[in-house]
Amino acid sequence: xxxxxxxxxxxxxxxxxxxLHKAGHRPVVHEAHPDxxxxxxxxxxxxxxxxxxxxxxxAARAVAGAGFDVTRMSVLDAAGTELASVPLGExxxxxxxxxxxxxxxxxxxxxxxxxxxxxxxxxxARLTGVTETDRAVTARFAxxxxxxxxxxxxxxxxxxxxxxxxxPDGPGPAYAGQRVFYGYSDTVPRPAAAPGLITMxxxxxAAFGHLxxxxxxxxxxxxxxxxxxxxxxxxxxxxPSGAPGWRSCCAPTAPxxxxxxxxxxxxxxxxxxxxxxxxxxxxxxARC
Length: 288
Ligand SMILES: Cc1cc2nc3c(=O)[nH]c(=O)nc-3n(C[C@H](O)[C@H](O)[C@H](O)COP(=O)(O)OP(=O)(O)OC[C@H]3O[C@@H](n4cnc5c(N)ncnc54)[C@H](O)[C@@H]3O)c2cc1C
What we know:
four-stranded parallel sheet, 23% strand, four-stranded mixed sheet, globular, binds flavin-adenine dinucleotide
């Protein structure tokens, strides 16, 4: 059984810890933030291969209890003409269907699963340096603490300290020229589109996507373990009075909105300020 120092308690670090634990090792996760319970980020879609990866370390069932199933994708051109309509992933297998869920929900489910299995998650542990010998690797943290293991896993995100230590001359992250904005709303009229359908509108220079959760299933329905969280996804509170709304939040960095977009889902979106930030990826996203 190897002692493993996992640096970063995001989605990758926690998932890696679950997999290593299942393989019989003893991982400890060291996360820089004092807590990770905030609703940070917006939402993401997990494709069936991701769900299968989670199933590999017995976490698919827990994750399938959050968010909602996504079963189909419709791709439209800028004029609204449907170019394609395709079923998504393994829609006949409840545990490995595409899902849409909040990033914070996914992170929370993985953390809860890790704790349930007895994996230690240390918060407020920001890695500052690493020392390696022939026999062990020691991580040093900003609070003066250290952790020694047989293996160190760097899962500390885009600006990884571990990567910089491993490859000091390696290239850093570079802006790829894309901006992605996310939001959710409970005031946009529900489109007639089928629940669980992702609609992607592809313009010449930008894309806009939206999806609608299914209506709440009866509580306890085995086919839909937690549609209540799906409803929460769709009924996120608006920013408090005075907080920047969708347009003012996007305005400083976004190029002018393209008038050829189908406006039905953009007119009154009010993402929380924390969701109105550039992100690297996300199928259910709008690029301003
Ligand atoms: C705040 C935030 C919001 C996001 N929102 C979305 C979204 O809405 N939709 C979407 O599709 N994708 C989103 N992403 C991206 C997506 O979560 C990641 O691309 C993906 O999950 C990869 O996760 P990761 O664990 O590799 O990295 P991250 O999610 O970035 O996690 C890295 C973790 O390492 C910690 N860390 C960093 N440096 C140190 C250090 N020196 N010592 C210890 N810990 C450290 C960070 O605090 C963080 O918790 C978001 C990412 C972040 C950070």
